[in-house]
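Contributing new complexes? Match this layout with PMT.
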Amino acid sequence: MAEDKHIEITEKCLDESIDAFFKSAPPLQDLDNITKKLENFVAQHSVHSESQNTKKVVCVTSGGTTVPLERRCVRYIDNFSSGHRGASSTEYFLKAGYMVIFLHRRGTAQPFCRFLPENPILECFEPSDDSGIQVCSPYAEAVKSAIQEHKSAVNSGYFLQLDFTTLFEYLQILQVITLAINRLGAYGMFYLAAAVSDFYVPWDSMTEHKIQSGPGGLAMQLAPVPKMLTLLRKRWAPVAFCVSFKLETDIDILLKKAESARRKYGVHAVVANELSTRKEKVIVVTDQSQTVIEKKGVGMDVEEPLIDFLIKEHAAYTFHQSHFVAKT
Ligand code: PMT
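Output block (do not edit by hand):
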C-alpha cells in the first residue's frame, strides 16, 4: 500500500517535470517536414506484407545533445559523443534487414562514411585535367562504397535519417518517432546511444541575448532534465524493446550503475561502456545476465557482435510478446 502511494507520488512528480520541460521547450522548427518523412517511411512499410512479428524496426539515436545558454544561442553546454557507435550500429542493423530511423546530432559520424577522412571534400577529391573533379586514388574505394551503400539503403526505403542539435529538438523528435513506430504496429527497438544532457536551462528563464562578460564570473542555475527513459518505456512506446546506454569513466561503478538504471527505468537491456575502452568492449546487462562483448580482432567493430546479440534478444522478446502476452 505504502509502496503504491510512493509510486503514485513519484509518477506525479515525473509528470509535472515532463510537462514543465515540454511546455517550456521552443516549438520544433521543422516539425511538418519531420512528420512528413516519418509518414512516408511508415506508409512504405505498412504496404509490405510483413506481419507485426516479422517487421523489424529500430530507432538508433546518436551523438550528444546541446543545451543552449541563450535563446539567440552563442554559447551552449555539450555532451560528448562522436556518433561512431550510432553510425556503425546503424550499418549492422541495416545489414540484418532492419528498417532504421537514425536520429543523430548534426555533424557527427554518418553510417557508411566512417572510413572517409575528416574533411572528405578537400581530402578525397582533386581537380582533373579536363577541369572536372576526380577522386584521389587512395580514397577511390572508400568513396565509392560510401556512396553506393548510402544510396542503396535510402532507395530501399529501410533507412531514414533525422537530425537534432539541442536537447529540446532531440526529445521532441524522439517523441514523434515513437508515434510513427507505434503506427507501424511492430515490436520495435529503441537503441538509445545518444549522450543526453542531464541539466538544462528552461526556455522561459533563458536570456534572449548573448550573456555579457563581467568581473564577477558567471553563476547559472541549471534545472534537471526529467529522465525520458521512464516516459519512453511507460507512455511513448510501452511495447517496444528498449536498449539504453550507461557511460562512465570509473570502471568500478559502471556495472552497478548499469544494473540500477535497468531496474529503475525498466529497460530491456543496458549497454555499459567505459569511455576509454568503449570501442573494444561493452557489457550488456539484462534481467538474465551480464554479457561481455568484445570486438573480434584488429580493424573489427565491437558493434558487430553487439548488434548480433541485441537482435537475438529482440527476437526472443518479440516471440514472447506475440505468443504469450498478446494472447492473455
Ligand atoms: O559516440 P561515440 O563517441 O562512439 O561514443 C558512444 C557513447 C559512449 C556516447 C555511447 O556508447 C553511450 O554510452 N551513450 C550514452 C551516454 C549517456 O548519455 O549516458 P548517461 O549515463 O548520461 O545516460 C544513460 C541513458 O539515459 C542514455 O541511454 C540516455 O539516452 C538516457 N537519458 C539521459 C538523460 C536524460 N535526461 N534522459 C535520458 O533518458
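Reviewers usually confirm one structural detail per submission. For this one: The chain has nine helices and 14 strands.
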